[in-house]
Q: What sequence folds into this?
């Protein structure tokens, strides 16, 4: 038996070297940051380029409330996020004046940032302002806040915190043996 090369037998490098997306604007950004990575001696552009290749799961959105929290005391710097900035309706405080660079900003989040006198720039504008990433704060969204992550692991096993896939959350659903002391035992 030989090595099945078609099935990726000898493929040792499995990281992405280009985005899977066909978005022409993303491809132009990749072209720009490839150039900056090659011509500048800084890790910032390398990180941005790597994150531009990432899948949607690895580009989690960041809420406005978390953005304000991470940028507190750094208002003079530019917050950089390779992903989406979303609005947080629970966040009632006044949004401070921020300078943000992101791939995408939702309409309501954009309105709140601009109303506070803030500024939203694109990655090509950032390349002109800070080609080496000086005076920037590199941010990331919470990757493990997806609903699917809550179900990882074996549900119903002693000591497990995994969320079971249940049709409905009520009295009749997964509330019998193993879930309460009065019905046999409780894990």
A:
């Amino acid at each position: 038996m030989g090595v099945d090369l078609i099935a990726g037998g000898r493929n040792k490098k499995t990281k992405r070297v280009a985005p899977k997306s066909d978005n022409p604007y993303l491809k132009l950004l990749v072209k720009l940051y490839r150039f900056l990575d090659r011509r500048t001696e800084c890790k910032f552009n390398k990180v941005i380029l790597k994150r531009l290749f990432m899948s949607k799961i690895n580009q989690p959105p960041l809420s406005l409330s978390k953005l304000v929290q991470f940028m507190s005391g750094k208002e003079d710097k530019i917050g950089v996020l390779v992903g989406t900035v979303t609005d947080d309706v629970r966040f009632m405080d006044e949004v401070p004046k921020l300078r943000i660079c992101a791939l995408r900003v939702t309409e309501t989040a954009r309105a709140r940032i601009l109303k506070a006198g803030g500024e939203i720039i694109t990655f090509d504008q950032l390349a002109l302002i800070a080609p080496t990433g000086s005076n920037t704060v590199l941010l990331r969204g919470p990757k493990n806040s997806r609903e699917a992550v809550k179900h990882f692991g074996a549900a119903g096993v002693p000591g497990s915190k995994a969320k079971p896939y249940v049709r409905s959350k009520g009295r009749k659903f997964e509330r019998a043996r193993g879930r309460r002391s009065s019905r046999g035992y409780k894990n």
